[in-house]
Specification:
Length: about 700
């Protein structure tokens, strides 16, 4: 904890001195309140809340860096983070101090001008907790309010820190049921002195909700549930009574229901409405969850709540009867658009399901919806009912086996934030084209247990043939779309070699900044899409970049670090990114001349392989078990995306105590114990499957070497 105490004093003195020298009054660190956020455009040098403004446009009015000089951007400073796992945080920058997070919800405070560490707070989330979430121990950043910094810790705590030194002031456990795998990866937002936070865990059998806590004390102010509880008990409120009428059977009571509020929120101060994005069903399998009947409110919905009381105002459900992991938790942007000659207060979202929605945010009325990527589950959205017209092509419950679902569970767009430029009128959307097969389990032979994703489906099957894998990987493209939300079409787009590229930042300098999966920071002209600047950042850059000023100079910061569900689960499909995990804050400025440390270059060498002893039939069982239990981190078919060790390279020594690793876990490296519910014979079948994959890799490498041209 707080290991930077010495530099903290020095750094803080520097910051205070700088602000004293400035014409404005010196402030305490993180002295942010609602008025400052509402009037954020009066101090464009700060980035005071997650999306910069309550409307979450991620647009900066700063123009010092612009389309004429962006080529002069160089590295101003860099700081390495503790863990080389995925980095998803949006930094908050207030009065010359940057507050950001890395893996395991560790909070870092830096002098935003020099990058000098001021303090660090490690909430000491148990290192083997990763198995209790779908997508690694990531965190999307902090909120600040009246001298405190707020972080949602992966283990479900919401913690308030003193912004001066990073010492905890209060901490609350946000979990409804401590026996279940509730996690937090999202960034809190703060409205009217209340800290708002939801949870993750819909792949692990939880019930979703969002809670408001008093920013001063941590006392709970209100909680809004997103799916009904046990129908044998009275519903919590009228909204839950309404929602309950859209659920059938009682499967969801056993398996949680899902609907977690794990990322997006936006706030309209005039309407005093808080908008939340609600996640997928738990389990995915709609038959087990709700007897295959009903819309299942408020899954996959955008819900408007009274910001002070948490009371329901309206909802729009993007995917009724959700069964494809089609969360509506993706970034929500509020803006004013002129539609058919009328100014409208709109809400925009591009959720996983592949449609771009524009709603009237005063009442939830659908104004338009069009596909922004290929989609096969629905043909279009019927404008009179506001409902999708389903094609049946993705209906894996029709008794005809596995279905290819487009977009896949990774979504046409995931958590990577988009941005809106009021000047161009365009939304800069990090989209992706993915598809995956889903197949239902015949019986609900699963229980929500820790460390194992339980969704009522067989794990997506990925062929092992490297040629086929290569073909699929090449079809999983990333795209930056400059989306016109009025015309509902792309004005320009950029194609990337792989999915999972970064969030975007739009600026008044006619620029769009983005990090890329293949390890670059890039800037395009916001109006034309022309590539104006790029610089290496050594690792996949997924988070939304920010820009700010200190001492009259403009900076642009990228949080860099590869990870999350794409490289972890679908490891074999992520290798076109060609990056290693290396987590770092990288800040640029005009004429910056600091050095980015050279990238990691460790070549993997296949060790001597143990002999394969299992039969084909046994390997089939081993593969099913590996893909069910291990693939969520180590990658499908034992091919890692590079963030977690590739088990095909396991040393003979580790093969010798493999059972010990599986049963004991490797807590200090992030691996939980799998001692429960799996016998030594089964562990040996998993090991044999890994050995078979090592031998396949060896043959593949030999063939590649033989066909390579002579030097
Ligand atoms: Ca999910």
């Amino acid at each position: 904890m707080n290991t930077f105490l010495q530099p903290a004093r020095r750094g803080l003195a520097l910051v205070l001195a700088a602000s004293l020298a400035a014409p404005t009054l010196a402030r305490l660190p993180a002295d942010v309140n609602g008025a400052r956020i509402v009037h954020a455009n009066q101090e464009p040098g700060n980035w005071m809340s997650h999306g910069r403004t309550y409307d979450e446009q991620r647009y900066s009015p700063l123009t010092q860096v612009n389309d004429r000089n962006v080529q002069q951007l160089g590295v101003a400073w860099t700081q390495k983070l503790d863990w080389d796992f995925g980095v998803e945080a949006t930094p908050i920058v207030v009065d010359g101090v940057m507050y950001t997070t890395g893996a395991y919800s560790i909070v870092y405070a830096y002098d935003a001008r020099t990058g000098q560490p001021l303090w660090k707070y490690d909430p000491e989330v148990p290192r083997d907790k990763g198995g209790e979430g779908c997508c690694s121990v990531v965190n999307r950043g902090v909120a600040v309010w009246e001298g405190k910094v707020y972080v949602g810790a992966f283990d479900g705590r919401l913690i308030a820190l003193d912004a001066r030194n990073g010492k905890p002031v209060w901490s609350v456990d946000t979990r409804l049921d401590k026996a279940k795998s509730y996690t937090i990866t999202g960034a809190p937002r703060i409205v009217h002195g209340k800290v708002l936070i939801g949870n993750g865990g819909a792949e692990f059998g939880v019930r979703g909700y969002i809670t408001a806590y008093d920013a001063k004390t941590g006392k709970q102010a209100w909680r809004f549930f997103t799916v009904p509880g046990d129908p044998a008990k009275p519903p919590e409120d009228e909204a839950m009574a309404m929602a309950l009428r859209t659920w059938y059977g009682n499967g969801w009571v056993k398996w949680g229901g899902g609907g977690t509020v794990w990322d997006s929120m936006a706030y309209d101060p005039e309407l005093n409405l808080l908008y939340i994005g609600v996640g997928n069903g738990s389990p995915f399998n709609y038959k087990f969850r709700s007897d295959g009947k009903g819309d299942n409110l408020f899954l996959s919905s955008i819900v408007a709540l009274d910001a002070d009381t948490g009371k329901y105002r309206w909802h729009y459900q993007t995917t009724p009867a959700e069964m494809w992991d089609y969360t509506a938790t993706q970034h929500i942007i509020l803006a004013e658009l002129e539609i058919e000659g009328k100014k409208r207060k709109v809400l925009m979202q591009a959720p996983k399901n592949g449609f771009f929605y524009v709603l009237d945010r005063s009442n939830g009325q659908l104004l338009s919806a069009e596909k922004f990527v290929p989609v096969n589950w629905a043909s279009h959205i019927d404008m009179s009912s506001g409902r999708p017209v389903k094609t049946g092509a993705a209906d894996y419950l029709d008794g005809k086996g596995m279905k290819i679902v487009v977009p896949s569970f990774l979504g046409g767009h995931n958590w990577q934030p988009m941005s809106f430029h009021p000047g161009t009128g365009l939304v800069y959307l990090p989209a992706q084209e993915t598809a995956a097969g889903l197949e239902p389990q015949q019986e609900p032979m699963f229980m929500p247990i820790r460390n194992v994703v339980n969704i009522g489906l067989d794990v997506p099957q990925l062929p092992e043939d490297p040629k086929v894998v290569k073909q699929i990987a090449e079809s999983w493209k990333g795209r930056l779309l400059a989306w016109d939300p009025v015309a509902q079409k792309a004005r320009w787009s950029v194609e990337y070699p792989t999915a999972w590229n970064g969030g975007t930042l739009a600026t008044a300098g006619n620029l769009v900044f983005q990090g890329t999966a293949d390890g670059r920071a890039v800037a395009y002209a916001a109006d034309t899409g022309k590539l104006l600047w790029q610089a290496p950042v050594n690792s996949g850059a997924m988070a939304g970049p920010v820009t700010y000023t200190v001492g009259g100079e403009q900076y642009v910061t990228f949080m860099v670090g590869w990870g999350g569900s794409f490289p972890n689960i679908t490891g074999p499909l992520s290798l076109n990114a060609k990056v290693k995990p290396e987590s770092r804050v990288v800040t640029f400025k005009l004429g910056g001349s600091a050095q980015l440390p050279p990238p990691r270059h460790e070549a993997a060498v296949l060790p001597p392989l143990p002999p394969l002893k299992a039969s084909e039939a046994e390997l089939k069982i081993g593969r099913t078990m590996f893909n069910g239990l291990c693939a969520n981190c180590h990658g499908l078919n034992a091919v890692s995306g590079g963030v977690v060790p590739d088990l095909r390279y396991l040393s003979p020594e580790k093969h010798g105590y493999f059972l010990g690793i599986v049963y004991g876990g490797r807590t200090e490296r992030g691996m939980p114990s799998f001692a429960k519910g799996i016998g030594p014979e089964q562990v040996e079948l998993i090991r044999q499957y890994i050995i078979s994959r090592s031998h396949a890799l060896k043959a593949e490498l030999a063939a590649a070497a033989a066909s390579a041209p002579a030097p």
